[in-house]
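Design request, tokens follow.
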């Protein structure tokens, strides 16, 4: 299992790389659940990651990026995805407002046909029962999505306060059975690590719990990043 950390600047990227974080997410954390980070800033972070890869050739680092909580048109979606692939992003995360909208299906299928790694982000508000989860996951797997995760749109409460551990366990097991790369995220604090790690997702996504005053728009704290990576090492 890995930990994914969302970053919004080069200094934050340097911080998580030095703590051995191997899943780095580019996200504008000052507003929106999946707001897209400025493209030029994203490019600067990718450059920093590239330098790190050159210095640590055995480090297996994956960079993901969000493309916004919504978008204006099919063409805008195509541009948002392609522009991030062009600068070296490895994985694109799509919100439910986009991947579940039939209007965007053709352009999404174009990227999936090219074997672009797309993660469908399920809103915690829509994870209502096992039958619904099973249906959604089968649809995503049949469409050839690389991964799936559940996240919260509002970060005031952690994921575990919105969805039972039993249902999250079902979600993880069902996704893995379909060969989907599966993650859990959403307002997570360090105290939720152990109970969610026990469900064996491929990764847990953190931001708020690693920031000053536990607020996602505030800077990351190095000591908390090292603490969560030490938890990952101990768990593995």
């Amino acid at each position: 299992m890995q930990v994914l950390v969302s970053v919004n600047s080069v200094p934050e990227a340097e911080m998580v790389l030095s703590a051995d974080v191997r899943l780095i997410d580019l996200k504008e954390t000052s507003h929106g659940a999946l707001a897209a980070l400025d493209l030029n800033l994203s490019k600067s972070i990718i450059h920093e990651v590239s330098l790190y890869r050159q210095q640590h050739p055995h480090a297996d680092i994956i960079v993901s990026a969000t493309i916004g909580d919504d978008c204006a048109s099919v063409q805008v979606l195509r541009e948002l995805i392609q522009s991030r692939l062009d600068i070296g992003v490895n994985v694109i995360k799509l919100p439910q407002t986009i991947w579940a909208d039939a209007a965007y299906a053709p352009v999404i299928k174009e990227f999936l046909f090219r074997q672009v790694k797309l993660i469908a982000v399920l809103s915690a508000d829509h994870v209502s029962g096992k039958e619904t989860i099973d249906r959604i996951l089968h649809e995503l797997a049949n469409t050839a999505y690389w991964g799936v995760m559940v996240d919260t749109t509002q970060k005031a409460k952690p994921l575990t306060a919105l969805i039972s551990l039993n249902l999250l366990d079902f979600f993880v097991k069902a996704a893995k059975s379909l060969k989907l790369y599966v993650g859990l995220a959403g307002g997570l604090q360090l105290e939720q690590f152990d109970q969610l790690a026990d469900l064996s997702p491929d990764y847990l996504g953190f931001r708020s719990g690693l920031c000053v005053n536990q607020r996602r728009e505030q800077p990351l704290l190095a000591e908390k990043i090292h603490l969560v990576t030490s938890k990952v090492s101990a768990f593995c």
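Comment from the thread starter after seeing the answer: thanks! The chain has one domain: 2-235.
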